[in-house]
Amino acid sequence: MTDNGLRAGDLLGERYRLIDRIGAGGMSVIWRAKDETLDRLVAIKVLDPDLAGDERLRELARREAWAAARLNHPDVASVHDFVRTTRRGQEIAIIVLQLVPGDPLAEKIAMGPLPWQEAVRIGGRVATVLSVAHRAGVVHRDVTPDNIMVHGHKVTVLDFGIAARIGEPDDDSTGATFGTPAYVAPERLDGTPAQSATDIYALGVVLHEMLTGTVPFRVRGWEDVANDHGRPPAPAVAGLPRPVVEVLQRCLRRDPHERPHATELAMVLDRALAAPPRRWPRYAAVGGVVVLLAGFGTAWWLVDDPASPPSASPSASASPAPSPSASVSATPIPAGSATATVPASPRASTGGGTRPSASPPTIPVPVTPTVDEALATALETVDEGLSKQEIRNDVALDLRQTIRNMARNPKTRAQLDEAARGTREKIASREGEGSLSAGYAARLRADVEQLIAAIAKKL
């Protein structure tokens, strides 16, 4: 579709000033805009004026506002306003939404499968949103990676543009105007009333795609949606808990009555993350380190020092995932210690040789964050600076886009060097003009250098 004459600087509804276009769909375009009445940034979804004369499509726009407004949940983009106005003699409908930071889940998946813990966490958050929606009588009907935004640990569900009331007749028997084929449940083509199970099927497809990088079934068009694809595949992912595999396969069953409810799905996924990791054997616990000495063919087996207080095992004290600035040690280290120490006396010896007085010092090994982790850290710094008014609104938006482009676009080291130089110059320029404070400029420089190192490691 076209913008139909919309331009940056246009004023819609006598209060929303368009800034730049940030997205487009089959029936609408999305603009970043400023609410000049309340002095805040918003997202404006504008129905294509060429379609605005279709009462059915205008009703879809109104329904999106209705559906999202019913869901008071932090993981749903809030609806601020719904306006019908006239532009150049044509009636247009606009939905004013919360401007959500972050990146579409589709972009993360395009970079490869996600770690199963991250995929399960995101899936659990979306399942919780769907549980709230279904209890409110709303079916989303377009759950796809493009409609899920991820920003650090925050997950936001977008676009209730084709939402329906549970039990409402589905008057589209072909699915031609609804959803993306790979995520559409087969019963949608049968014209059955709107039901929550269709959202569960779509989320199952998304979860499988996050875990493996591909959708579970080969679906290119609506004829493929109608085909029976047989038993849902189990994702072959190392370490993925069995309950997750089982509930995912249930989500993808052809019969909607065999799929789990959103509440059950969220519970299974949350429990998979909360399950304690496997405990190490006793001889590998922090207080009882096994040391093998190669010199003189002597092995020392060292056990707990009876005089020492019990200490937690690494499985109990380790954090779920390292932060970008975290480091790991070559051997387990008790909390509060810089090095691992050898107990006072060995349990037994199996030869001559001399017992060493202490274990070798532990040298921390730096951990280079992934590109996604480093990118999230830099974007969080921008958002924090914006919230504390240390970075001007328009500068924060510009910096976020610049940093994202640097993370996504370079294919060669030369391209990375050029993008890095431009990013460094932009930070220096913004600091010099006073729109970026010195403190946040310094933090952002460190974050950007960390991101550059992560990108270079992949090239």
TrEMBL record:
Its EC number is 2.7.11.1. Residues 313-335 have a biased composition (Low complexity). Signal peptide: none annotated. Residues 358-367 have a biased composition (Pro residues). Gene3D superfamilies: Phosphorylase Kinase, domain 1, Transferase(Phosphotransferase) domain 1. It comes from the Bacteria. SUPFAM superfamilies: Protein kinase-like (PK-like). The keyword ATP-binding applies. CDD domains: STKc_PknB_like (cd14014). This is non-specific serine/threonine protein kinase. ATP binds at residue 45. It comes from Allocatelliglobosispora scoriae. Residues 307-368 are annotated as: Disordered. Residues 16-273 form the Protein kinase domain. It holds the Pfam family Pkinase. One of its GO terms (molecular function) is protein serine/threonine kinase activity. It is an enzyme of class 2 (transferase). Keywords: ATP-binding, Kinase, Nucleotide-binding, Serine/threonine-protein kinase, Transferase.
